[in-house]
Structures are given as structure tokens and as C-alpha cells.
Write a structure and sequence with these properties.
alpha/beta; Aspartate Aminotransferase, domain 1; Aspartate Aminotransferase, domain 2; 3 domains; binds pyridoxal-5'-phosphate; 12 strands; 7-stranded mixed β-sheet
Length: 463
């Protein structure tokens, strides 16, 4: 029998139990040149079924040789590690396979999503009228917020889309410029605002730029501020930006895809001070909280705008219950994966207090790493405190070349970043399973690797 879920679950358990043990001792990746992959696994699809034993072995090999994002040596992306309670929720969601569009197909899952969202509105301090959804990722959250702002602006019939101006930081995520073209706004209508030495938008420049644009008859309508920029993890000054947006009728969106989960921490929520003044806000629980990709939340202060942009009639879909329980009226997707359940199982089992501890621990790991860089000779630090990103260079090694070779030699998965034209290694402490020693181990690996006489590394001129 080829379609037998109970049998395949036994296989799943066998494969995963083996994999979890191997993951602890294996390097974070097993480097293979892409053109040689076929030599390692039988990836080919054929007319005839695969022999079950070969099938199992291929799966085993695929698991073993795929990059391990939960390895203690994986720091390459803004996510890493896994929280078992979130993984559990996601596995259950796969089995239920509800779609979140209507109450009829999702039942109690609708209440799960609504409960997570409503507790988040409370943490932000959004009022009674707030709304939200779980889009497919941070980029999609940002896109939806731009559409909301655009539609709100275009309700004024005198406004012409070619005149709408988007503001965002020069250090913001690349999804902003992609989203602008998707939403029918010209790319030349984006203003990349200059940032100060900490990577935060210069508030005065924002004000000046608005005045300049208005003088030319253009219409400022949207500001994307960031809570945790992708490279430096800088938090824009909401308290300074919000009144300017308010006075100029500009939609203020806060992209917290990376750092927005500070709302859960008593100690670090000051980094998003003024958040209740934003029009929309998003964060990724799959980045800092160890939830599987994707667990993204978009919240909007005034739910009415979500309906105005995304609500459409479809009698083949909406056949029972009202808008309140048919969540498809608020989303861009029709069939929508249940991404709320994993967040709910996490929150339910460890409480807000448990989530807070994860965030605080990650900042603690960042402090430990930053201190190491500051206190050790041959290191230069490029990032700042209150950040989950530690940017540094070691001796005069070219960071790009060093990261590439660490990867190709299966030592460490880590990447580089650039700020104000300076390139550096970027260590991110967002794996909730890492300990202090495991983070400090990164420096030991780099120090030993650069001493290895068989490895030839490029160097750069020192800054
Ligand atoms: C990661 C990130 C995004 C994109 O989120 P995805 O879920 O990868 O689409 C957007 N903004 C910032 C600041 C990010 O760090």
C-alpha cells in the first residue's frame, strides 16, 4: 500500500529520531557543488515506483546532507533552532490541513488565530478596532500594509497613484522596493531616508524630504519604519517619526519581521516605544522564537482598512457565518495554511513569560558575543548595543571570503553584511536553543580556521 499514513508516520519517526541524533554531532552543512548533487542522491523521477528500501535510504541521505538550520553552528539567516512546542503545533496543522478562509472549514482553528491576534493587540496597545492576519511571511506583511495605505490614500479621489510617495530607510528590507512595484507605484517614487551612525532613520531628514515632495505637488502617504533592520538590527525611533506621519496623513507601518518580538519582553519593549501610534505592525515568530517558517503576524490598528482592501464577495466560498468568523475576508490568500496553531501551542505551553525569556536570553547571548569582540584584540566591532546582530571583522581577513570558506569547509554557517559601505561578518543570536558557550565557540572556530595553514584566505585593507 503506497498511501498509508500510519505506516508513513512510523517511517517519519524512524527518520526524524535518527536525524535528531545526527544533527547534534554533524557539522551545520555538508557542502556539495550543485552540479554534483546527483552523485550523492537519486533525485531522478521515473515512470516506475521507487523500491521502498531505496526510497527510505534516499530520504535519510537527503536529511543528513541538507543544511541544518537547527545546528548550534547555524547563524546564516535571521532564524535558527526550533522550539519543540511550535513544531508540534505545525505538525498538527499539517495533519488537520484546515484552510483558514472560513469558519466552516477551520472551526475552532478560527478562534485559535483570533486569540493569538487579540493578545498581540493588547501587547501593542492597539485599541478595540484592531485587526490582523497571518500572511505567508514578513515580505507579504509589508506588502499588505502598503496596499492598505495605498487604498486609503486613493479614496481621496483627487489623488493620482503616480504622485504617491513611499518613504523607507536606506537600511530597510529589500521587500519594500519589490512591494512598491507590485502595488502599482513607480520605483522612482520611493525615498530612501538616510540613517544615522546607529542605522536609524534621521527624523529631521524625513521631515525635510516630505516638505520637498509636497512642494512638487507629490503626495507622501506611507512610511516603512523598521524594528530590527536586517543587517544591524537597529530600531527606528517611532516616538520621533509618529507625530510627523500623523501631521502629514502618512500611514506608519512598523516592519518588525526581525526584532518585533521585543513586544513580549518587559526589558526590551522600550525599543519599540510609541508602537501604539503606528497604523500597522508585523513580526516573524519564525525568526526569534524558533517557530517553523512561516509564522508571520500582521496587525492593523483599524480593521476597517483590511476589509476595504481585501474583502471581496465569493458565494462559492463564504456560505455560513459572518465576516467576523470567516477570516478570508481579511487575507490576501484564499486557501491559507494554518500558521496560527504553532504560535498558539508555543504560547499556551510556555506562556507569555516563557516567550519573554526566549527574547531576553537572545539579547543576553548578543551581549556576551559583543563583549567578546570588544575585549579581544584583532576584532573590530561595527554594531551597537540593544541589538541581536553582532557585526565584526577579525584581523584583516576579507569577511566575504572567510564566510564562504567556513561554509565550504563545513565549519560554520554565517554570513556577512554591509553598512555605510563597510563589509563585516554578521553573527545573529536568534537561536533560542544556543547557550553562551555555543555562541562563544563561533569565535574559537574562526580563530582556529584562520590559523590553519592549508586554508588560504583573502585579506582586506584595515578600516
Ligand atoms: C526577514 C525580514 C523580512 C522578510 O521576512 P520574510 O518572512 O523572510 O518574508 C522583512 N523585513 C525585515 C526587517 C526582515 O528582517
Amino acid at each position: 500500500m503506497s498511501n498509508n499514513i500510519k505506516k508513513d508516520l512510523l517511517l517519519f519517526n524512524k527518520l526524524i529520531n535518527h536525524f535528531l541524533d545526527r544533527e547534534k554531532i554533524l557539522p551545520p552543512n555538508h557542502y556539495i557543488e550543485p552540479q554534483n548533487l546527483h552523485k550523492f542522491f537519486d533525485i531522478s523521477l521515473n515512470e516506475n515506483p521507487n523500491d521502498p528500501v531505496e526510497f527510505e535510504n534516499t530520504l535519510k541521505e537527503l536529511l543528513e546532507k541538507s543544511p541544518k538550520s537547527s545546528s548550534k553552528l547555524f547563524f546564516n539567516q535571521l532564524y535558527g533552532g526550533r522550539h519543540s512546542k511550535a513544531v508540534l503545533g505545525d505538525l498538527l496543522a499539517v495533519f488537520l490541513n484546515n484552510s483558514m478562509a472560513t469558519y466552516k472549514i477551520a472551526g475552532p482553528q478560527v478562534a485559535i488565530e483570533k486569540e493569538v491576534l487579540s493578545k498581540i493587540y493588547n501587547l501593542i496597545g492597539y485599541g478595540e478596532n484592531s485587526g490582523g492576519t497571518f500572511p505567508t511571511g514578513g515580505s507579504m506583511c509589508n506588502f499588505m500594509s502598503l496596499v492598505l495605505a495605498r487604498d486609503k490614500a486613493l479614496k481621496n479621489s483627487r489623488y493620482d497613484i503616480s504622485k504617491l510617495i513611499v518613504y523607507t530607510s536606506e537600511n530597510s528590507h529589500y521587500s519594500i522596493s519589490k512591494n512598491v512595484s507590485f502595488s502599482g507605484i513607480k520605483k522612482e517614487n520611493i525615498r530612501y531616508l538616510k540613517t544615522n551612525k546607529f542605522g536609524k532613520i534621521k527624523v529631521v531628514d524625513f521631515k525635510k524630504q516630505i516638505a520637498k515632495d509636497k512642494q512638487q505637488g507629490l503626495i507622501p502617504f506611507y512610511l516603512n519604519a523598521t524594528a530590527g533592520t536586517t543587517v544591524l538590527c537597529a530600531f527606528d525611533d517611532i516616538v520621533g517619526l509618529a507625530p510627523i506621519c500623523n501631521n502629514n496623513n502618512i500611514w506608519l507601518h512598523l516592519d518588525g519581521a526581525f526584532g518585533g518580538t521585543v513586544i513580549f519582553s518587559d526589558k526590551y519593549k522600550f525599543l519599540v516605544k510609541g508602537i501604539e501610534q503606528t497604523d500597522s505592525f508585523c513580526f516573524n515568530a519564525h525568526k526569534t522564537l524558533g517557530a517553523p517558517i512561516s509564522t508571520s503576524v500582521l496587525t492593523v490598528k483599524n480593521k476597517q482598512y483590511l476589509y476595504e482592501s481585501f474583502d471581496c464577495n465569493a458565494d462559492y466560498l463564504y456560505q455560513t457565518h459572518g465576516k467576523e468568523y470567516n477570516l478570508g475576508h481579511l487575507s490576501l490568500e484564499c486557501g491559507r495554511r494554518n500558521n496560527a496553531l504553532k504560535f498558539w501551542t508555543l504560547w499556551k505551553s510556555i506562556g507569555r513569560i516563557g516567550i519573554k525569556k526566549i527574547i531576553d536570553q537572545e539579547f543576553n547571548l548578543a551581549n556576551v558575543a559583543r563583549k567578546y569582540v570588544e575585549e579581544h584584540p584583532h576584532y573590530k566591532l561595527y554594531s551597537f548595543k540593544n541589538s541581536l546582530s553582532i557585526c565584526f571583522n577579525y584581523k584583516n581577513f576579507d569577511p566575504e571570503d572567510l564566510c564562504k570558506k567556513l561554509y565550504e569547509k563545513n565549519k560554520l554557517m554565517i554570513g556577512f553584511g554591509t553598512f555605510k559601505k563597510v563589509k563585516f561578518i554578521r553573527l545573529i543570536t536568534i537561536n533560542c536553543q544556543n547557550t553562551e558557550n555555543e555562541v562563544l565557540n563561533v569565535f574559537k572556530i574562526i580563530e582556529e580556521f584562520t590559523k590553519d595553514p592549508t586554508v588560504i584566505l583573502k585579506t582586506i585593507k584595515n578600516e
